[in-house]
Amino acid sequence: MLTVLQQTLAEAHGLAIAASETVERVAGRIDEPDLLRRLDELRLDAREVRGRCLEAERELGEEQELLAHANTVSEHAADLAGAWFRAGTGPLQAWSFLAMGEAGELATWTALCSLAGRDGRLVELAEWGLETQRRHLELVLEGVPILAARFEPAEARWG
């Protein structure tokens, strides 16, 4: 059975797996070079997060159970993304979904940071992840007006 700390680590890992897939979906709806650069940065960081989480899971033991939980979280996130993107999602809506995902990741890393600080394990990883997710959310939120500026308020919706 996983501890609360282990479960939260696995959730952070699962959300990083899902983030890679979400970034790909969003990139398919975006053609703005600055926003695509931001997506590339998110994609690379998600890969690093996954690697660091795997390493931490190995050190904690229960690696298989942690990975199984991470995969379950990723699948749940993919289900949510699938429903969102099936609904004729335009670029601005896709970017908004990305912002929601980044906010969720930030919340999970905030919890992990708090738990790790009281447990003593994973403090370095949790602090790194928290700072990374703060930067991600900022990158995405700064992209909203860039994307929104490409649309005329009175024009027909995308799609």
Characterization of this structure:
This protein has 159 residues and is mostly helical. Helix 1 packs parallel to helix 3. The longest helix is centred in the middle third of the chain and has 29 residues. It starts with a helix and ends in an 11-residue tail after the last helix. 38% of the residues are buried. The mean pLDDT is 93.
Report the C-alpha radius of gyration, rounded. Answer: 17 Å
Low-confidence stretches: none
* Portion in beta strands: under 5%
Order of helices and strands: HHHHH
Sum this structure up briefly.
It contains five helices and no strands. With 159 residues, the chain is mainly alpha-helical. The longest helix is centred in the middle third of the chain and has 29 residues, at 91-119.
Topology:
Layout: H1 4-27, H2 33-60, H3 63-86, H4 91-119, H5 123-148
Helix pairs in contact: 1-2, 1-3, 1-4, 2-5, 4-5
Please give a handful of descriptors for the protein shown:
mainly alpha, 159 residues, 82% helix
